[in-house]
Structure formats: C-alpha cells, structure tokens
Fold this sequence. Notes:
The chain is 47% helix and 0% strand. The chain has 75 residues and is an all-alpha fold. It has one domain. Helix 1 (19-29) packs antiparallel against helix 2 (35-42). 11% of the residues are buried.
Amino acid sequence: MSPFILNLPDNFDHKTLDISVYVASKLYEDAILSAGQAAEMAGLSKRAFIEIMGKYGVSVFSSSTEDILNDVNNA
C-alpha cells in the first residue's frame, strides 16, 4: 500500500467516521477497487468489509444490467 495524506478541517470530528473505510467503500461503489482491494485498503477482511457496506450506503450487489444478466445465466 502506498501512503496517502488527506488534509481535513480542524473542526472535523474524525472519531465519528473511519475515514479509510469510508473512502474504500466509495472507491468500491464506483468500481475503482474490487471488494478485496477495498477491504485491504480499509484494513479489514473481505467478509468484514462487505458486512459493513450498508452502514456507508453501499450495496454489495451490482446494479449493472450486464452483471445481473451474467449472474442469471450462470445460476
């Protein structure tokens, strides 16, 4: 992993949010990272990462029509 510096306002209460999980969840949601990559970024197991995605408003189910059709065809 490469370190990344993020400047936040002084009045930001970082104790209410796990920034690494938040950023990883959004990168996963935008399909920039896989679930495994996002979990690694957040310092979690893949299972733990997937289990908390709802807290961040991220669905672990693809909304892509192509992905859904592939899932149906492979079922």
